[in-house]
Amino acid sequence: MLMVDIIRKKRDGGKLSAEEIDFFINGYVKGEIPDYQVSALMMAIYFKGMDDEETHLLTNAMLHSGEVLDLSMIKGFKVDKHSTGGVGDKTSLVLTPMVASCGVSVAKMSGRGLGHTGGTIDKLESFKGFSTAISNEQFIENVNRIGISIMGQTKNLAPADKLLYALRDVTATVDNMSLIASSIMSKKLAAGADGIVLDVKSGSGAFMKTDEDARLLAEKMVSIGKLAGVRTMAVISDMDQPLGRAVGNSMEVKEAIETLKGNGPEDLNELCLTLGSYMVYFAGAAPDRDSAYAMLKESITSGRALDKFAEFIAAQGGSACDVYDPENLPKASEALDFTAPSDCYVSSIMSEEVGNACLLLGGGRRSKEDVIDLSVGIYLHKKVGEKCASGEKVATLYGNDKKKIEEAYERIKGAYSFSDSPVEKNKLIKGIVD
What we know:
Elements (H helix, E strand, L loop, with lengths): L2 H9 L6 H12 L5 H14 L3 H12 L14 E6 L7 H10 L4 E6 L9 H5 L11 H11 L1 E5 L6 H11 L7 H14 L4 E8 L8 H17 L3 E8 L7 E2 L1 H12 L5 H17 L6 H13 L2 H12 L4 H5 L9 E6 L4 E6 L1 H11 L15 E4 L6 E2 L4 E7 L2 H14 E4 L9 E5 L1
Parallel strand pairs: 1-2, 1-4, 2-3, 4-5
Antiparallel strand pairs: 5-13, 6-9, 7-11, 8-10, 8-12, 9-11
């Protein structure tokens, strides 16, 4: 078999076989096929596409290109959750302890943030001493003992995805449904869960800018999961404005803790209850979604979810005291308010610009080597549809460098649009793919 024949076949619109896909994935991981040939194939796939069977075969080849976690030692049905990324998305910090407190095993792999979207691991590292660099054995032991563990992605997990993504990033071939779906699902399936709940973001702050594209991606990923024998569903949620009101690592942790206390923002609470109800139902801990939803709400009012979060933080090196007293978390030294120019309503917020403002403050990475300032961030006092009085706080920027704060301030000014007349609030849940 020759790589040039595979490139030619896809260039001409042909369908790749399992053998052809395995050949190029295995050859690329072993270093036997050069970057320039794989780049040519990625571009051919970008223009000619892949059908559902090809996408499933590609995912399977990437999944088996390295380590596949064996979680058979974990008791019961294991659930995982994945978000396609967005601004202010601290869902995992709230959702996982809620679900675990309902008696469901949550075995989750997470990553770090890059660019304008934050990473779960970065946020959790706001707790001094907390680490996701734990062994597979410790990961399994924590899930069995307390019902929850989150670890960083291992180097040997789906190595083909890491190689392909790096290549796609520099050859303008990232934005293809099949390549995106296989990238996400190869890692999720390699992580070994029995059920996967996907949060597919749609809007200005998401990778998928339109609801149509978000649904197509959700359908592809759900199809891949089901073909692999893993119970899978997706929620399509709004990212035309940031989720919640806090953007920035330690600030998002504090908002997550407030949500676990029952005092969180409405949109974050609703999304966590929706995603969580599927996770609890999938695991068989509730007879239907309505019952699961009620169980999750009770985990908040009873304090069980907050206690579970504290237990989880302590199990991975942090201090439970910081959960009950989040003022111990990193705090910025400077603050600057952006105020309403007149009596008005917020008509839109460009999520990506808010994320970029946080990046300018030092709260994100431009490259993987950048060190994040965990204390900086932005608090959104006003969101879409909310009324503002002239001079009232719309957003507050927190930072440790006045010049960076001033630069970020200009971004926030540009991110907000206002209207003289009332504006309808965004719909959070845009669709379900089950």
